[in-house]
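Let's practice the habit of predicting before peeking. Look at the sequence and jot down your guess about where helices and strands might fall. Then scroll down.
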Amino acid sequence: MKKPSKPADGERRAMIGYVPQYKVAAELIYNALVDGTFEWARIADPEAGRVDDIQIAKPGRLDAYQVKWSETVQNVTFQNLIAEEKKGKAKAKPSLLRQLAEGWQRLNRLHSNHQVFVHLYLEMFHLLQPSFRLTTHHRRTPIFKHS
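Done guessing? Here is the structure:
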């Protein structure tokens, strides 16, 4: 039997992800400002598709970040990155890797004047290192094909 949630549990879960996400965004934006390369930034951009957490544009370059953060430690495998997420009878959610690839494709179409880089920023998984970033290749042609 599932334990009933408390009224504030949803807000606490959201804050676990949003506060660190905004801290990451602030640090990335600050660094671009200090470097003198900052053009613009978007947070939670609905046009970005699944890579919507943070976008930072610099001359000729767009870095888009998907941030995953949790206070619980989980192990991650390559299978976790490529597996679809199924919950009950609902339609399966695309794998995290597919979401990143589709976000890269979408951002390339929207921002053809920038070279697009997609980053996965993980701070919830137990790894040999506390975090890692997965970056897609920066070619204009898609490196992921739809089946």
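How did you do? The chain is about 30% helix and 25% strand.
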